[in-house]
Amino acid sequence: MYSFRVAIMNNISVVIPEVCQAIVKEYKDEIIICPKSPEEWTSIGKVFRDRWNVPHAMGALDGKHVAIRKPTKSGSLY
Fold first, then answer.
1. What is the average pLDDT across 67-75?
2. How far apart are CA 54 and CA 58, in angstroms?
3. Is-contact 7 13, C-beta < 8 A?
4. Which residues touch 59 (CB under 8 Å, ≥6 apart)?
5. Which string of DSSP letters, residue by residue, matches 38-52?
6. 26-53 burial, b for 16+ CB within 10 Å, e for fewer?
7. CA–CA separation, 14 and 60 (whole Å)
8. Which of 54, 51, 59, 55 is nearest to 33 (CA)?
9. Torsion of CA 58, 62, 68, 74, to 10 degrees
10. Is residue 1 predicted with pLDDT exceeding 60?
11. End-to-end alpha carbon distance in the chain
C-alpha cells in the first residue's frame, strides 16, 4: 500500500490478489508439480544439464521485469 501509493480499499488492491489466488488454485496441479521420488529429480536434472547446459539445477522460475518510474521529488523512498 505504501510502496505503490495504492489505498488498501482501492479496487485494484482487491482484484489483483483474488486473480492471483484463482490462477494458483486452477493451475497448481498442472503447472506447479513437485517431483516425489529421487528418480524424478534425477531426470529433471538431466534435462536441465543436457538442454540448457546448467548442471546441478532442478528447475527455474521466470518473471517479468516491470520498470517503475519514481515520482518527482520522492527522494530515497523509491
1. 77
2. 9
3. yes
4. 44, 48
5. HHHHHHHHHHHHHHH
6. eeeeeeeeeeeeeeeeeeebeebeeeee
7. 29
8. 59
9. -20
10. no
11. 13
Query: Cell 521529488 sits at which residue?
Result: 73
Query: What is the phi-psi region of residue 75: left when phi exceeds 0, alpha when psi lies from -120 to 50, beta otherwise?
Result: left
Cell of 64: 517479468
As a whole number, the mean pLDDT across the chain is 79
Reported as a single tens digit per residue, the pLDDT across 4-38 is: 666 666 677 778 888 889 988 888 888 777 888 99
